[in-house]
Amino acid sequence: MRENRIIHRTADGVRIPGTWRHAFIHNFDYHLTDLFIYADGLIDCWGLVTVEEFAEKLRQGWVATELPEGARASGHELAAWQFSEPSTWLTPEILLAEVRDTIEQLNRRPDSTARCLAAVDVFLVERTEENRAAARAAYRAIPVTQRRYALGDMDRKDGPLQVLVAGVGGRTEDWPDEPVTQEEYDEALAYFAERAAWRAEPPRVPVDGPDASFAPAIKLYQSFPMKRVEDPGTRALRHEYPAPITVAGAGYPSVAHAYWALSVDDLSVRAAIAEADTEHAARTLAADAPRREGWTHARTAVMTGLLRAKFTHDDLAEILLATDDATVIYDDDSHFWGDNGGRGRNWSGRLLELVRSELQARRAGIEPN
After folding, report:
1. Rg (CA), the chain
2. Torsion sign over Cα 359, 279, 218, 333
3. Using one digit for the tens of pLDDT, what is the confidence trace for 300-349?
4. What is the full DSSP assignment across 233-295?
5. Beta-strand runs (E) in the chain
6. CA 57, CA 200: separation in Å to the nearest integer?
7. Which of 117, 184, 192 is nearest to 149 (CA)?
């Protein structure tokens, strides 16, 4: 499974992750299409099927692994052709094994490669022929298309692994005519000892810090009505939370009020928005007035300035700083400002993270300017 091929489908309101790969469907002609594989064990091959049903589709040739000479094929709205000297390394058994592995990977469970390496670890601790046979069987259970890279070593491939599971006098898949020598076996043992030492080292951290946050993500849910309380927690990070700010000499009861007021040209409407009882009322007033020219391109910069003003309040700054480096997921009706189940751009969350970073920099005595 390739990490950049993550997709999902929704079933009964539940988001089910998946991935995809190319395949041929044999329906009169051969059609190059995408095979979608999901974590719940369903596969879409022009219709959702279980793994067992997918195996039957392979047996029947609906999902094709054999491509006959001269057969007609097409890629939808892309091209059409005939096979000439076709060659494929897939068989129904191999493709089914790869799909089973993909489902395990989607569920973060050990796939056939991981199970093989676990069996190898058992053998290295207790080097009995029984454990070697188990490791050898586990290696052969890996789809043949994946065996060369079980160790993740692009230089040595799986050479040391094949030697280890074959044993002295045994034969490897890459060199079936030459029995493994004692010297080759000792080199394989040394390779795995070095690999174990490397795996035991603490993970390397990039020079300027980790790539991703280590604090759990937080989600800022909408809550109505929003009133100031003694201990608001992360609700205080919402734009509509009562936190007076002053912009260009004008006062506003919250970031949301300021944002909607600044979005309109009419000064009388701005004043009315500033006096609105709730964020909803402020937004309604703004919706009935024309937007300022260039507002769409300026709104992100405006919101950044408003959040900087809000978090000059020490108590609110402490709440934001307490989120550490967590990803901030902002619940909002807007696909621009909110996350919306992963479909929105989450600019509110991203800008809160930016302002938090600025506060952390000042606390650490690091001034970016």
Report:
1. 30
2. negative
3. 999 999 999 999 999 999 999 999 999 999 999 899 999 887 789 999 99
4. GGGGGSTTS---EEETTEEESSHHHHHHHHTBS-HHHHHHHHT-SSHHHHHHHHHTSPBPTTH
5. 7-11, 14-27, 29-38, 43-44, 48-49, 63-64, 72-75, 79-82, 218-220, 245-247, 250-252, 328-330
6. 44
7. 117
Distance CA 225, CA 236 (A): 13
Tokens matching residue 184: 């080759």
Both tokens assigned to 212: 């991703």
Helix and strand tally (H, E) in the chain?
Answer: 12, 12
- Strands 328-330, 218-220: pairing is parallel
- Return the biggest CA–CA distance within the chain: 92
Tokens of 246: 């002053």
User: What is the percent of the chain where pLDDT is above 70?
Assistant: 98
Residue with tokens 């997918």: 54
- Contacts of 140 by beta carbon, 8 Å cutoff, 6+ apart: none
Tokens linked to 231: 């201990």
Query: Full-prediction pTM beyond 0.70?
Result: no
CA dist., res. 122 & res. 220, Å (int)? 46
Picking from 257, 357, 355, the residue whose alpha carbon sits closest to that of residue 301 is 355
Phi, psi of 11 (to 5 degrees): -130, 120
* Rounded (10°) CA dihedral 151, 154, 160, 165: 40
CA separation for the pair 261, 242 (Å, rounded): 15
